[in-house]
Amino acid sequence: MKKRCLVLLLFISAQFLLYAQEEPSDLLERIQEAVEEDFFDKALDLMEEGRREYPEDFRFPMVRGDLYLSRELYSLALDSYVLAENQNPDDWALRYNIASTLGYLDQNFQALEYLESLHQEGKEGLLDDMGWMYYKTHQPEKGILLIREALENNFDRNLSLTLGTLYSETNEPELCRHYYLEAIHDALEAQDSYFASVGYYNLSLAEKSFYDYDAAIEYASHSLKLMDRSGGHLALGDLNMMRLNFSRVEEEFLKAIELDKTPLSRSNLAALYQMRGLLPEALNQLQKIDENKEKSWMYYYGLNQEQFTLDLYRQFYQVYRGLFQQTKILGEWGFKEKINRSLHVLSYGLKSEYYKILYRIMAFKEGQSQLDGGSALRGSLTLAAAAEGFPPLSDKYYGNAFALEVFPQASPWYDLEIGRERRDISRLQRASETFDPLWEVEALEESFREMALLLQAGKSMKRDDLILRIYDKNPGGLLQYGLRLPLSLKMSGSELSPGAKRKIRRLLKESGFSLRSDNRGIEGRFLTLRINMGDAFAYTLSDNEGSVLISGSEILQEGHSLEDWVLSFRSGVFFP
User: How confident is the model over 474-488, as pLDDT tens digits?
Assistant: First the structure.
């Protein structure tokens, strides 16, 4: 027994001496083996052991940062890398990893400082990262100068693609297309379908910003033919949303959601629902986005946390504003329901103002950042949006932007925005006459709506005409802006008592309709609701040409009242 104990003690002592004599490189090798075998807890324990045994060796916190980075734990990775940098501030690989991690954390200016420092010290292979960071920090001119010089010496499709992106920011269509297409053609020759698909997607976005919508849809289609990616579906959906082709838009956005690991597809779907007046559905999508705090995905996209949050606040504001207006118009019946409606109106109004303030504060901050970085046009437009509701200030920024504008096709967009701010119907009218009638249907609807809002409510034939034009393009584009649908009402039938007639008129008025006694509308067009109360309750909504939009017949009895009918009817009219 004593002999066995002696042998065991000798064995333990030998193991202790073996590890006591272990070099840092041996321990690092064991860490690497543990990582390769997915024994991450073991690897972290060995890293901690290395830090205790060799506190001056920067490699142990560095490999811990590498492990966290590979597991997308970016904050933990940065903490480890900074600790390693404090011990060895001159290691190039370490500093590059810090720059990458800062980029994943959307700390783009800090990431750029590291990249610029490495570049100045002679580190090669950084231009693509630097160009991308110059784009994300609104400093395109710096990136253009750097990358163009490099491409003159040696072609690189990654740099060519980045240069195309930078030229899209400076609104130089020919140069943007040139470098994008050079990169794409090089990728196609190398049979790199993924790269070419990304390139076509980026070019589609650029062409849309250059007002060449036909080219934009062509390149988005090319992108999808090469690879079924969420970006291609989002691009096609956005372009079809401009045309108010809602069924195609929803189809594309739902396809994108299936492929997308980022919140972008949900944001686009929320915008679609908001535009159609499906506000609870839009709010549901926005709340799902707001719950997701992960932001590392932005590293690969041309936006930063501020821009994404800015757009999210704008969407929340629009949805709550719409719910406020819509709930005010649509009546509820029953004491409890009326109380809840009043509370909802108050809640929606407060939330709308809250997000409006958040949006305004962030937009001023982001607009100034864009101006400071050299993106004068984009910065002026962002500041103008922040100043909405304050005409002297918004006028100033829109004026600055218009002076920098290089596309004549942008003129009606400025007329729309400035006309809205100045409450200038003639300018809004000019915008409506200048928008592309095939592609810019959404903007056309918006110009009609702004004119209708400025005209006095009541028996204004021009206002009715405008509202009917809006309804014709987008039935959901009325109630959420406080606009009622003008309707000629004709009632008849053996069971139609004076009390029933008054009740029907009241219910319709509380359901978003503005009743007219005569048939007036756009260019002779009008909507008429015919109700016949006999043995059955029959109704038909039609236009002046006799085209039936909605019809039905039902027996009104206990459990199915006029209130139930009007709830179903208004849903079919405004949210088909």
Answer: 999 999 999 999 999
